[in-house]
């Protein structure tokens, strides 16, 4: 099976159209999953009354009896899905066609499109150090436009362009001392989500997880205590995962105006060891909270990555 190259997909500037290409091209078969779809079964007929949607009229009955009847259905697994999208400044990093935010917001829009075409309700929350925007869950297809508009408005690259002036660069040692305060703390955001979803729902977190991890794990456990199903989709760039940069390099902070010069080749071994320790901590914390975790590289064709992930999830 062929997939969209990230560069090709990136040329589709409208996020809703990009999501439609991903879903309708390669993921439409996933709608039978109990996690992303509704099971709709016929229940009974009732007589047509003015105002009923003509598409629900049973025209075969009309042809036989010359009477208008409407088909009624039971929706037995109507899902409420809440998308949590990280819009912190670190998400605007990306060396290839997609920044992490481009990739993550396309995942979110694709899942929203997939759920809505199956009559599931979808809401969206973007966050930085705290919650930025909240869209309550809606079932109608037109709600996708509102979700896309929210993610485009809260794009960290767009917000960075609107800032005027430049902060003075902080010494690297001072940045390290403030490290915990620079990261988003998801505990309050996830607790708020858990308390506002009225019944069992699906919460999808899309983030680079450069966050306060203690608060993150507390938030996951709180969600789980409310019996919500949790997906954690971890988005990272190849540079962050492989650290193949070579030669003297200047690193500039995205969260604050910090800067450090070094030779990455001298740091690669220690960096990769620290990265694996960090990833293992994230995987273990998600497992303990019974959250479904998956790592996404921004260089991987998005439709292929989503298709493979949802296939694995369906089999489980």
Summarize the structure.
The chain has helices at 6-10, 15-27, 59-65, 100-116, 143-153, 156-162, 172-177, 179-182, 186-196, 213-225, 238-242, 264-288, 302-315, and strands spanning 40-47, 69-75, 80-86, 121-127, 131-138, 202-207, 229-236, 249-252, 259-262, 292-297. With 316 residues, the protein is of the alpha/beta class. Mean pLDDT is 79; it is low at 28-40.
How do the helices and strands line up, and which of them pair or pack?
Layout (H helix, E strand, L loop, with lengths): L5 H5 L4 H13 L12 E8 L11 H7 L3 E7 L4 E7 L13 H17 L4 E7 L3 E8 L4 H11 L2 H7 L9 H6 L1 H4 L3 H11 L5 E6 L5 H13 L3 E8 L1 H5 L6 E4 L6 E4 L1 H25 L3 E6 L4 H14 L1
Parallel strand pairs: 3-4, 3-6, 6-7, 7-10
Antiparallel strand pairs: 1-2, 4-5, 8-9
Helix pairs in contact: 2-4, 2-13, 4-5, 9-10, 10-12
Question: Would you give an account of this structure?
Answer:
It is a single chain. It contains 13 helices and ten strands. Strand 4 (121-127) and strand 5 form a beta hairpin. It has two domains: 6-37 and 79-315, 3-Layer(aba) Sandwich (Rossmann fold); 40-75, no CATH class. It is 44% helix and 21% strand. With 316 residues, the chain is an alpha/beta fold. Helix 2 packs across helix 4, helix 2 packs across helix 13 and helix 4 packs antiparallel against helix 5 (143-153).
